[in-house]
Amino acid sequence: MVNPFQSCVLPSERIPLVEPSLLTLPCTESCIVEALYEKSGPVHSARFSFPTSLVEAAVIIPLIPRERSWDLLFIRRTEGIAHHPGQIAFPGGRAEAEDSSPLHTALREMDEELGIRLDASSILGFLPPAQTQKSGFLIHPFVARLDAPFILKPDPGEVSGTILIPLLFFLEKVNLSPSAEHFDHQGNVVWGATARVMTQLSVALLTRMGCAS
User: Fold this and answer.
1) 77 with 156: CB under 8 angstroms?
2) 103 lies in some domain
3) Does residue 51 carry a pLDDT above 60?
4) Cα-based torsion angle of the residue sequence 129, 135, 136, 140 in order, rounded to the nearest 10 degrees
5) Cα–Cα distance for residue pair 80/78, rounded to 1 Å
6) Which domain holds residue 179?
7) In this structure, is residue 114 part of a structural domain?
8) Higher pLDDT, 56 or 43
9) Angle 79-193-47 from CA coordinates, rounded to 5°
10) Which of 116, 141, 120, 132 shows the shortest CA–CA distance to 58?
11) Using one digit for the tens of pLDDT, what is the confidence trace for 141-194?
12) Phi-psi region of 194 (alpha: psi -120 to 50; beta: other; left: phi over 0)
């Protein structure tokens, strides 16, 4: 399997990672799976070992298939919560004592926050954990396919709204700026750990495209 983070040397900032014309090609599910770490990896069954000062959390990166590409489903957190109020994020949250693994955490939080019950068969793969810079969370990101039809039932105590952003938007931005730290899509600003996860996912996909071309 291709390791998406070692298979190619990344070009310098502002030099496209891949020929821009490649972004016009359909982004298939197999391409996404090949760009990610395998879902059968150890993260599915056990916790990572990290400093106890970090609070483990997990998120689902929901990819909704479209005719030639994908949309990403984000949530906007309510203003009254303790951590990351008002921010655009992925569905997810901190691990609870009863969670058997980071994947269990991510699936549980997806159900609690949006009323969508996924299972492990929906998971396409995962990315390395990302750490928040100030709040001390260590986030395990899982990429999942979310097929229509589905009914969103946001928890009003945690989620003030949902946002769809095309995957192509992130690929085009990261193709020219591989270390992008924020994204502004029609006034919806993705920043912080969520932006770093999206940059990581985009680089993995672009690297896979470049190596396959």
Assistant:
1) no
2) yes
3) no
4) -20
5) 6
6) 20-212
7) yes
8) 56
9) 105
10) 141
11) 999 999 989 999 999 999 999 999 999 999 999 999 988 889 999 999 999 999
12) alpha
